[in-house]
Design brief:
630 residues; alpha/beta; Lyase, Ornithine Decarboxylase, Chain A, domain 1; TIM Barrel; ten-stranded mixed sheet; binds pyridoxal-5'-phosphate; metal-binding; lyase; arginine decarboxylase activity; Arg_decarb_HB
């Protein structure tokens, strides 16, 4: 458990059972623990295969409650006079079942939704039913966007259109007039406080969105001139997602509240301060200001927002506003786990030594000498000699002076000796290991081939170097034998995971167990519920993975049931996305089969059988069909 730091990033949701299975407790200590391996087996019995995305829906409930209650407690503690009205930004995970589950969990708290594009406003309007909760509309807008949002106003909903730029204020007032409805308008202020981490450019002077101080004043004039001076209801800011440092959040809240206070003093009856997203996830468990972590808790986040808003409002003698936050990552990241099957490994050293009789060659003699004489004290010197021989062998080969059998023997001996060195190095105190040998561990790492696509399922790792906890979901009572990296099945050398979480830094390898012949080996990629499945692309046409939605059920012996299964993309579906029509594909292959029959390359019966195979194959799933390790 400590090897994979499960207690640190797992936050009471994830644990290891005595029989070595990784378990999830969607309600933390209050509910049952589900062995993830059992869910995988049950899904396979229902006809699904890995890669498999498992959503623990009760965990969503738990997160929504945790956030709302943290704010409500903070409000009660500081005798704050406003309320908390959170909204879930559906761009973080738009899946209908996820959004509906979140709204269901948030009913008692009047928890609403945030939308940021035209398709999202259409979705938001339909799933939102509570007139007390908000629909916050961010993102660039056109007439259709605004009109759709204002349909919500006509239906009595609290839909707030946030202007990202001045021209949008004009558009909103114009369309509202045309529709004869009073809009609720928010202004996004461009704070000088910059975020931190990977998404820090969402804030600061050069941010893509937001109004400067002069533009806010101009926006107020536009609303006044349109006779809609009471429509300005909300002041919004967002300094970026995954803000690891609470000090930055406090600074931004104080800066924005100062705007609120000054605007209230100018007579603007703003009702809400919206602090945007940014509440981070401790992906690496380090509880630090590293970009994959956070140095605060949800409770501290809520307390600091409430306290700092109250502090400035009291100082400026203006009413306390209602507080809106748009936390996405913090609500959904924990609830889904991607399970992939590692089905083979690319090893540096061959499993069984190949018997090559080349011992008399000078290079081999030198290597054998190093092999017989390495020890702790001469580790550095031996490593340099080893590298020099490898280089010499390569040069000789390029000049045509080395036959393949000697080259093969050099390679085998090189990795064999390197592995021995690594063993000796790991038995020494860290300060006794020469610096040069740091690279050796990385070079010796095996690559486990996993049936998934980094581009589809772990896009932030590929694009931004974001880290996710990765842990085998079973065999955790066995000591892992290999330091490995993971490679996916796309034809792209970037399709790999070679950076892993670590308490103090980032690790280049992950300890994994040997893959045994007939048993599948499953690895879980955790905290993937935010952004990953929705941002994924169809590089190599792999597309969506299989998915199951799991609910707790105390009456079931297993403690859970699978409520829904969603099959991953079939081959013909992803081909259709790139304009290959299914019938056209079959028609063209049939013409080629007919041609081959005419030329006597195929017998008619065989030709028709092959055509049927092709047609059937189109309905197969895109990922590899692995029943067990080969
Ligand atoms: N609100 C806005 C305007 C955003 O751009 C984002 C994402 O960057 C969010 C909310 C969600 O942020 P997070 O997932 O950090 O809570």
């Amino acid at each position: 458990k400590s090897l994979y730091m499960i207690d640190r990033w797992g936050r009471g949701y994830f644990d290891v059972s005595p029989d070595g299975n990784l378990t999830v407790a969607p309600l933390q200590e209050r509910g049952s623990k589900i062995a993830i391996r059992d869910v995988v087996d049950a899904a396979i019995e229902q006809g699904l295969r890995t890669p498999l995305l498992i959503r623990f829906q009760d965990l969503l409930h738990h997160r929504v409650r945790a956030l709302n209650e943290a704010f409500n407690r903070a409000i009660a503690e500081s005798k704050f006079r406003g309320t908390y009205r959170g909204v879930f930004p559906i761009k973080v995970n738009q899946l209908r079942e996820v959004v509906e589950e979140i709204l269901d969990a948030g009913k008692t708290y009047h928890y609403g939704v945030e939308v940021g594009s035209k398709p999202e406003v259409f979705a938001g309007l339909s799933v939102h039913t509570d007139p007390e909760s908000l629909i916050v509309c961010n993102g660039y807008k056109d007439d259709n966007f605004i009109r759709t949002a204002l349909i919500g106003r006509k239906l009595g909903k609290k839909v707030i259109l946030i202007a990202e730029k001045l021209s949008e204020v004009r558009m909103i007032t114009r369309v509202a007039k045309e529709m004869n409805v009073e809009p609720m308008i928010g202004l996004r202020v461009r704070l000088l406080t910059e975020g931190a981490g990977k998404w820090k450019t969402s804030g600061g002077e050069n941010a893509k969105f937001g109004l400067s101080t002069a533009e806010i004043l101009a926006a107020i004039r536009i609303m006044d001139e349109a006779g809609m001076s009471s429509s300005f209801k909300l002041l919004h800011f967002h300094i970026g997602s995954q803000v690891p440092d609470i000090l930055i959040i406090k600074r931004a809240v104080r800066e924005a509240t100062r705007y609120y206070a000054k605007l209230r003093k100018m007579g603007q009856r703003i009702e809400y301060i919206d602090v945007g997203g940014g509440l981070a996830i401790d992906y690496d468990g380090s509880r630090s200001t590293f970009h994959s972590s956070m140095n605060y808790s949800v409770e501290e986040y809520a307390r600091d927002i409430v306290h700092n808003i109250a502090d400035i409002c009291d100082e400026e003698r203006v009413p306390h506003p209602n507080i809106v936050s748009e936390s996405g990552r913090a609500i959904v990241a924990h609830h889904s786990v991607l399970v992939v099957q590692a089905f083979g490994s690319i090893e540096k050293t061959p499993m069984s030594p190949i018997d090559i009789q080349t011992e008399e060659h000078k290079l081999i003699q030198n290597l054998l000498y190093i092999k017989d004489n390495i020890s702790g004290p001469n580790l550095g010197e031996s490593w340099h000699d080893l590298l020099q021989i490898k280089e010499e062998a390569q040069k000789m080969f390029e000049l045509g002076l080395l036959n393949l059998d000697v080259k093969a023997r050099v390679e085998i001996l090189f990795w064999e000796i390197a592995e021995n060195m690594q063993k000796i190095a790991s038995s020494l105190e860290p300060e006794e290991v020469p610096d040069d040998l740091g690279e050796l561990r990385k070079q010796l790492a095996d690559q486990y081939i996993c049936n998934f696509s980094v581009f589809q399922s772990l896009l932030d790792h590929w694009a931004l170097g974001a880290l996710f906890p990765i842990v085998p979901i079973h065999r955790l009572n066995e000591r892992p034998a290999a330091d490995s990296t993971l490679v996916d099945i796309t034809c792209d050398s970037d399709g790999k995971v070679s950076k892993f979480i670590d308490l103090n830094d980032v690790k280049d390898t992950l300890p994994l167990h040997p893959i045994s012949g007939d048993q599948p080996y499953y690895v879980g990629i955790f905290l993937t519920g935010a952004y990953q499945d929705i941002m994924g692309d169809i590089h190599n046409l792999f597309g969506r993975v299989n998915e199951v939605h799991v609910f707790l059920d105390e009456d079931e012996e297993s403690g859970y049931y699978i409520e829904e299964t969603i099959a991953g993309n079939k081959i013909h579906e992803v081909l259709a996305l790139t304009q290959y029509d299914n019938r056209d594909l079959v028609g063209k292959v049939k013409a080629q089969v007919d041609g081959a029959i005419k030329q006597d390359l195929l017998k008619p019966t065989e030709g028709m059988r092959l055509l049927a195979d092709y047609e059937r194959g189109l309905k197969d799933q895109t990922y590899l069909s692995l029943t067990s390790a080969p």
